[in-house]
Amino acid sequence: MSSTDEREQSGCPKCSHTETTVDEISTTGGGLSKMFDIQNRSFKVVSCANCGYSELYKGRSSGDIVDIFLG
Ligand SMILES: [Zn+2]
Question: What InterPro entries does this protein's entry cite (predicted)?
Fold first, then answer.
């Protein structure tokens, strides 16, 4: 009855929870909306849905950073 499929080291670095939320922060202050600028000046924040621990990433896709966050 025991399922041991889960990798024990994946999950939030602090509490091992595996549910995350992703927010995006843009640091573009001006009125320009060039895609390259937005791409280069935006950060994504992955937060643990359980304890709120967050990490900030730059220039990566949401899927990548969730993988990195969960380890
Ligand atoms: Zn956590």
Answer: DUF2082_NA-bd_Znr
Q: What is the per-residue pLDDT across 28-39, written as a single tens digit (0 to 9) for each?
A: 655 555 555 555
> Do 60 and 42 meet the contact criterion of CB atoms below 8 Å apart?
no
Domain presence at residue 27:
yes
Its domain, for residue 40, covers 20-70
Contact 54, 45 (CB under 8 A): yes
Number of domains in the chain: 1
What is the CA(39)–ligand 1 centre distance, in A?
Answer: 28
- With respect to residue 32, please indicate whether it lies within any of the assigned structural domains: yes
47 CA to centre of ligand 1 in angstroms: 8
11/13 Cα distance (integer angstroms):
6
Average pLDDT over residues 53-70: 91
- Asked whether residue 33 is domain-assigned, the answer is yes
